[in-house]
Amino acid sequence: MKPSNGPAGRIFLSLIGVMLIAVGGVFSWLMIRSYMNASESRQWEQTDALVLRSVIDERIFKGSPREFRLNVLYGYQYEGVEYTSDSISPRGAKWTRKVDEVVELAKVYDTNSAHTAWVNPADPEEAILEHDTKAAGYTVWFPAVIAIGGVGMLWGAFKPNS
Fold this sequence. Notes:
By secondary structure, the chain is an alpha+beta fold. It has two domains: about 5-40 and about 140-160; about 45-130, no CATH class. The chain has helices at about 5-40, 100-110, 135-140, 140-160; strands at about 45-60, 65-80, 80-85, 115-120, 125-130. It has a five-stranded antiparallel β-sheet with strand order 3-2-1-4-5. α1 (about 5-40) packs antiparallel against α4. The longest helix is centred in the N-terminal third of the chain and has 35 residues, at about 5-40. The two termini are about 15 Å apart. The mean pLDDT is about 90.
């Protein structure tokens, strides 16, 4: 099969290349942003926190299985001011169908239990009990390879014929 070196073939390769660059670029950016946010929260200041409320929420959608999440409220003090937060992690409490996981988490964050909280010094009302994973930063190479493949397709579409 002979490759198409005409304008239609170049346009087709260019469009695919641009789409790959866009998709790879967006996912790379999202993963880098996730990594940076996870890294940043590790620099926040630590303080003692006390769990004030720990209950398991349940929701049911018609035709779907029940889902559960842990709803916590904890108090902490930062620079002499008392605050409360309901965020276990920066992403919040996730809904899951695995009630056993939520029950185990409820045991960890039982009412009146003491924990370490990390407080955002730029916004002391923002605090977390657990950090997000930095795994996105270690796997950013995958969408980057897709974007680089798109650059290669663009180069191949416009390189001089030999």
